């Protein structure tokens, strides 16, 4: 018995079976860390997303039992629990640096007792982001292997790196590489895509953009590269790919605008974006030198933060993460200010950046270059593994099918990371070497596939600029996108070995 496809070609049951097998193996590879650990991976802010999502559902008319035990949260906030980044929001404020869209997913799934649904969302987005460009590329150049294998192989190879750690992560980080793939797909293939393919990529890219504030910066930085690559590839309708990329960027800004309007109308709250930029340039030096030279000054709102920083001489108080999150007397500064002063500092961060830049442009540029380089090489998966403090912060949260937020089989004792981290680094270096070789060798890989790879590399660099330059270099931010290197190396190798002649039957193969 055979199955007849819409293009008239027949697909044998054995071909369907092989396709299902390839996808199943890729799915198992993607979920390998979850299966080995027996528990999802989570971070400090996992509770913050659940809390904000529950609150948003309440304000839009969906009351329900809170998935967070407030008495335990109070212990954290009053110092009886761990002194770390627990997100206890001030009255009448909404954290604009935390995605409302992703929070709604987290809050809804927590109420249903199925937070693992976030993992299903991660995996679905990954497969869709890889399937779409491979489908289009196979349709135009053909391959010696079916589409199912062409999609599965790169995912399987990438799963030897950080991919399965982020697939199991109850945080929106997986959508950063998904966004990079979506923007790259539109940039290279928009002129030959079907309408429904364009709409699907736009939907995927828009979801990725609104899932985290850093993703909006990532999409914005990739937009100029989309213009340049589109012009180099063809002058015919060169404007179409960057225009579609701008739609994705626009969705990110629209989400921020809607959030502000909804916060005011539904809960009489103001949206506050934590002063990550201020904290970054204080830690780097130029910001602190500027404050030392100019404070106290009522015309500079950030001087209230400078005063709080002077209450301790612990050098760790000047690190960006402690400035923004710490609450203890020795390390806390921003969080020890009144909600009104916190809002003043947050609202002043852009103006403060430009004041410091005018005062010390070379210091800012030097720090930015250093941070971007540091971020580029920070690729360990260590920050996806919950520590004791992370477990304690998330202890008040219910909603997992697998029980309480606690350590799994591989997170309680992460000693294995001393072996795995160097192996990952070597794996990524080899992947980059393969990419560079196949990009240089002429006529082995279609130019469009090479252009797709260039856009992915641009996305990895843009991620380093946004996260390292604006926030702070962290392995969590580097590792979330670095698995794109082995993914694209495998894609290039597949097309380097493709059949020389296009097989029309292969266009529709599973």
Give the percentage of residues in beta strands: under 5%
Report on the biggest sheet.
Answer: 2 strands, antiparallel
Rg calc: 24 Å
Shape: globular
Distance, first to last CA: 16 Å
Uncertain segments: 1-9, 73-90, 499-510
The residue-averaged pLDDT reads: 88
Query: Helix tally?
Result: 24
**Could you state the order of secondary-structure elements as H and E?**
EEHHHHEHHHHHHHHEHHHHHHHHHHHH
Structural class of the secondary elements?
mainly alpha
Share of helix among residues? 55-70%
* Beta strands, count: 4
Widest sheet: strand ordering:
1-2
Provide a descriptive summary of the structure in words.
With 510 residues, the protein is mostly helical. The protein has a domain of 253 residues. Helices cover 64% and strands 2% of the residues. The protein is built from 24 helices and four strands. The chain has a two-stranded antiparallel ribbon with strand order 1-2. It is globular and about 70 Å long. It starts with a strand and ends in a 14-residue tail after the last helix. The N terminus and C terminus are likely disordered.
């Amino acid at each position: 018995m055979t199955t007849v496809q819409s293009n008239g070609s027949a697909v044998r049951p054995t071909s369907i079976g092989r396709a299902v097998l390839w996808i199943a193996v890729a799915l198992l590879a993607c979920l390998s860390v979850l299966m080995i650990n027996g528990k999802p991976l989570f971070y400090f802010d996992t509770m913050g997303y659940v809390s904000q999502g529950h609150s948003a559902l309440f304000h839009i008319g969906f009351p329900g039992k809170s998935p967070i035990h407030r008495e335990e949260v109070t212990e954290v906030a009053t110092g009886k629990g761990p002194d770390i980044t627990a997100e206890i929001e001030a009255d009448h404020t909404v954290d604009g640096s935390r995605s409302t869209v992703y929070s709604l997913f987290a809050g809804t799934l927590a109420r249903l007792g199925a937070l693992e649904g976030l993992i299903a969302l991660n995996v679905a987005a990954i497969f869709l982001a890889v399937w779409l460009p491979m489908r289009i590329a196979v349709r135009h150049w053909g391959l010696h292997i079916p589409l199912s294998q062409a999609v599965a192989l790169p995912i399987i190879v990438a799963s030897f790196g950080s991919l399965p750690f982020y697939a199991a992560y109850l945080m929106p980080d997986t959508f950063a590489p998904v966004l990079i793939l979506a923007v790259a797909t539109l940039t290279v293939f928009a002129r030959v895509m079907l309408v429904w393919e364009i709409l699907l990529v736009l939907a995927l890219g828009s979801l990725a953009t609104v899932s985290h504030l850093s993703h909006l910066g990532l999409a914005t930085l990739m937009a100029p590269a989309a213009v340049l690559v589109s012009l180099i590839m063809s002058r015919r309708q060169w404007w179409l790919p960057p225009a579609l990329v701008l739609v994705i960027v626009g969705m990110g800004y629209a989400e921020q605008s809607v959030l502000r309007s909804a916060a005011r109308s539904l809960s009489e709250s103001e949206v506050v974006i934590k002063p990550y930029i201020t904290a970054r340039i204080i830690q780097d030096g130029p910001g602190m030198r500027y404050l030392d030279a100019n404070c106290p000054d009522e015309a500079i709102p950030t001087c209230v933060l400078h005063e709080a920083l002077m209450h301790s001489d612990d050098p760790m108080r000047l690190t960006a993460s402690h400035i923004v999150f710490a609450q203890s007397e020795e390390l806390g500064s921003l969080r020890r200010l009144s909600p009104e002063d916190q809002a003043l500092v947050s609202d002043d961060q852009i103006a403060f950046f430009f004041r410091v830049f005018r005062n010390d442009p070379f210091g800012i540029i030097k720090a930015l270059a250093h941070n971007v380089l540091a971020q580029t090489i920070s690729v360990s998966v260590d920050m996806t593994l919950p520590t004791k403090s992370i477990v304690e912060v998330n202890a008040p949260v219910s909603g997992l099918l697998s029980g309480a937020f606690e350590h799994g089989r591989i997170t309680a004792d992460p000693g294995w990371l001393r072996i795995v981290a160097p192996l990952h680094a070597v794996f990524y270096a080899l992947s980059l070497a393969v990419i560079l070789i196949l990009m240089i060798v002429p006529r082995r890989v279609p130019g469009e596939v090479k252009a797709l790879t260039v856009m992915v590399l641009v996305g990895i660099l843009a991620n380093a600029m946004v996260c390292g330059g604006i926030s702070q270099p962290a392995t969590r931010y580097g590792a979330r996108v670095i698995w794109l290197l082995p993914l694209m190396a495998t894609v290039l190798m597949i097309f380097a070995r493709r059949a020389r002649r296009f097989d029309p039957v292969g266009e529709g193969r599973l």
